[in-house]
Every structure is written in C-alpha cells, then in structure tokens.
Amino acid sequence: MPIGPKTFQTRTxxxxxxxxxxxxxxxxxxxxxxxxxxxxxxQNPYKSQSTLGWxxxxxxxxxxxxxxxxxxLIGDYLxxxxxxxxxxxxxxxxxxxxxxxxxxxxxxxNQLRQYxxxxxxxxxxxxxxxxxxxxxxxxxxxxxxxxxxxxxNISNSNRFHYLQQLKCQYEYLINKYQERPIxxxxxxxxxxxxxxxxxxxxxxxxxxQFLNNQQNSFLERLSNICxxxxxxxxxxxxxxxxxxxxxxxxxxxxxxSDSKQWNHLLGYLYEIYTFKCHSSSNDIQKTLxxxxxxxxxxxxxxxxxxxxxxxxxxxx
Length: 316
Known about the structure:
This protein is mainly alpha-helical.
C-alpha cells in the first residue's frame, strides 16, 4: 500500500516514518559541513570495536598496501574516495585491508590472511619480498632498539643512548632501501614520538642539542619521508596518519616564517580528506587547533589504521 499523509493516525507517527526513511537517503549535497562531520565522528562506532556492517559495493574494491583511496564511516554510510593525485583514467581504485604504513611484509601478510590474501602483488610487497630475509632482519633491529627506548623508569641518559641508536638504524634503513616505493613512515613516527619523551628543562646539553637538531630538521625530514614540498604534494595519502598530527604539533609550538604556507597545506589536505569541506580562519593558532581536533577524529574513524574487518564479497 503506498505511503501517504492519510496512512498515519498521528503526526508523531508520520514524523517518525519520515525520519526513518530520511536516514537511508544519501546526503543531498556533495559537501558535508565540517561541523557535522566532526560531530558524527565523535560518535564513531568503531571505538567500541563491536559494530559490523555489510557494504556489497565497497567490498568489490581490491586491496593494495599502496592504496589510492581512503575509506571511513559516517553514521550508516561508508565513504570511499580517491586520495592520490596520480590516478589516471583506467587505473584501478584500491583500498587497504590492513593498517596503513606497516613496514614489515610479514606483519602485513599476517593481517591479510583473514581475507584469504596469502601473497599480495602490489609494488610494495613485490619489493619487500625480493629482499625479505635481509629486510626483515634490519626492521627487527629497529624494533628491538625501539623497545629498549620505550622502557619505563630508565634514566634520561640511557633513553638518550637508545634514541641515538634508533636514529642511526632509521637512517640506515632509509639509505639502504632508497628504491622502496614508499619510505619508512611508521619508523619516522616512532623516532619522533620517542624524542618527545624528554623534558627540555631537565636535559643535559648534549640531549638538548640533539633535540634542537631534530626540531630544526623536522619539516625537511617529513617532506622527504612523505615526498612533498610546500607547493606540491605528489601523493596526499602519504600524509594520512599520525605524521600529520606531528606536523600540526610542530607548527603549534615553533614560529615559522612560512607558517601560512604550511597552514595552507593543511587546509588543502583537509579538503581532500573530507570531500572539500573546509573552514579556515585568519587566526593561525585557532585554525591549527581546529585541524588537530578534526584530523584526530577523522583518524579514529579510519579503521584500517587499527584493525579493519571488511568482508570480501568474493568469499560469500
């Protein structure tokens, strides 16, 4: 029986049905106001790790450890969008079934087995697999030193000793494996995070000098690891993750002559990641605070940064 105004006995019933139907309609505008986006991300169902969904069309996207698309949830909707600037007509659009930027091919393979993918053939896996024994051993050395540097209740001098070793191993990795399709993003994040363990006012001169050098070279090192300049980003997806939060923290705490340009870069990235929904301010510090909050919530909805579970329809 067709639904019409006379079908309902009360206005409350009618309003309830209209509400239920409207929830299943696609957004009326291609742009989502950023405040709405922020509020919905605050209710991210994946924080509970107990929400399951079936998205038949989305399940047709193949996996790549070097994806050109990102995906996230807003309410009942799963959004997949192109996030690489080098996609050409006829190229396959791919998403990542596993966490982004995992350097170890063994770890990526373990995560992909749940989707019956036993040997990923993306460019990154082909490269890593060609040097697998030597490559994994070098990564293991980095992981071992990282574990030592993360220990609780050790002195600053001991932690600094491990931090120096970690930096040497990191530089060894990026120099030895220069031909790798992407650099070591997670290892870069680890190195920066451990550097933040130190409190400036309680450090010896050698430690202070090391930290100052790290800060002064941060933007250059980030640019190298993510292949970007202030005027051009070759692949915006490489900045998606905790690395962009580190960038915002750096811009918040250190005055830069080109801070407006970096702020423009963040605005550009935010437009890409959120369907060109953007709100800017002349107050750079306020804008950075907004970006920090918005990116944090956006990353929380990116379940492939944690432990995704997309059902591959080919297995049904």
